[in-house]
Amino acid sequence: MPTHDDTWLVVPLYNEARVVGEVIAGALPTFGHIVCVDDGSTDSSAAVAEAAGATVIRHATNLGQGAALQTGIDFVLTQTGARYLVTFDADGQHQVSDAADMVRRAREEDLAVVFGSRFLDNRTKAGLLKRIVLKTAVWVTNQSTGLRLTDAHNGLRVIRRDAAEGVQLRQDRMAHASEIVLQLGRTRLPWAEHPVHVLYTDYSKGKGQSLWNSVNILVELMFK
Amino acid sequence: MTDQIWIQLLLLIGVAVVTVLLTRSTADARHQAIRRVLLAAFVVVTASAILYPTWLSQLAALVGVGRGTDLLLYGLVIAFLSFIATSYRRMKQQDRRITELTRTIALTQVRQEQAGLPTSASQGGHSTGTDDAGAADDATTGGRQTRGAADHGEVGGGIERPDPAQPPGPDQEPDRP
């Protein structure tokens, strides 16, 4: 039986038909409410997600992960009464147990936002290059947002309704990860970071953030 | 002078064509006014540069540039950069509009699906259309909507719907027993 009845999992989805079914099936026992925002996938992602038991919202055309996330947030705010929403990646790199821990912590410590961080403990095995790229992204994000985070571009976050109302992402593509931190910071609501384990499977490595992508992120951040 | 008459004629026709093309586009009043003023200046400068080629060289010498053609090149570079800047901004605005539009369609669609109404995406049948249609239906079909939502849950592999954490959309509210 789902235990988090007032929580919605928001999963941006783009061409992940191979794994998304498993990811949703794995999360459903813990989080009974899952919304997948299919960002104009060209494969059967949306159908797979729906068959696995998620509510699916379809973008008619591909807009980018930031746009998908915002659509998911809008859905939770306008069409559900959820108290918490959890942003969760569709490629299986996040752990459901981490997400559950983070929601629990948000409840217990009355936090409006809990950011997942893969650098608070040693569970996550990231290569040197990836580490450098991510740390650079963290540095840039911290400079522009004023928050002191240890991880950026981590898709696992718990956001309480009042904080989610302060989010209006305008960066459709990857730079939204810094933008959402900035906007959540501006709400001045209490936040924390929570150690999470990001699992780099061969699948996620194949489509993860390359060095090129981080160049794109920096450019998008500079020329808004 | 006579050996230049044909090229002068061709260039002047070119200027005229560009002028006509640029005046035809529409935008908000201020931008349009600015563009028309710039356009008038462009016509005057270009026409005089064509008719009196030495004039441009004199102007170039005045501002410390070697030849008139160099001055023209610098002007072009600036014009090109400002073109890139404005079209980038315009593209961004257009992207925003597409995003808003796509999001609205997506959210409307899922609202209809959850209310049990057929949508073009889910059933391939005819779309019921706007939210208004859904709201008009409400008064008589509250029961049907709940049933539709339950159907949706079955398709989805057994999530219970409707449920307490997901209150009905605003257009369903009045029918809640």
Notes on the structure:
The complex is a heterodimer of chains A (224) and B (177). The radius of gyration of chain A is 16 Å and the shape is globular. Chain A contains nine helices and seven strands; from the N terminus they run βαβαβαβαβαβααβαα. Chain A has a single domain (7-222), classed as Spore Coat Polysaccharide Biosynthesis Protein SpsA, Chain A (Alpha-Beta Complex), CATH 3.90.550. The longest helix of chain A is centred in the middle third of the chain and has 18 residues, at 128-145. Chain A has helices spanning 17-27, 45-52, 65-79, 96-108, 128-145, 161-164, 176-186, 202-207, 211-222, and strands at 7-13, 33-38, 55-58, 84-87, 113-117, 157-160, 191-195. In chain A, helix 1 runs parallel beside helix 2, helix 5 packs parallel to helix 7 and helix 5 packs parallel to helix 9 (211-222). Chain A is an alpha/beta fold and 224 residues long. In chain A, strands 3-2-1-4-6-5-7 form a seven-stranded mixed sheet, with helices on both faces. Chain B is mainly alpha-helical. Chain B is elongated and about 80 Å long. Chain B has helices spanning 5-24, 29-51, 53-62, 68-114, 120-123, 131-155. Residues 122-177 of chain B have low confidence and may be disordered. Chain B is built from six helices and no strands. Chain B has a domain at 1-51. Classes of the chains: A alpha/beta (224), B mainly alpha (177). Chains A and B meet through helix 2, strand 3 and helix 3 of A and helix 4 of B.
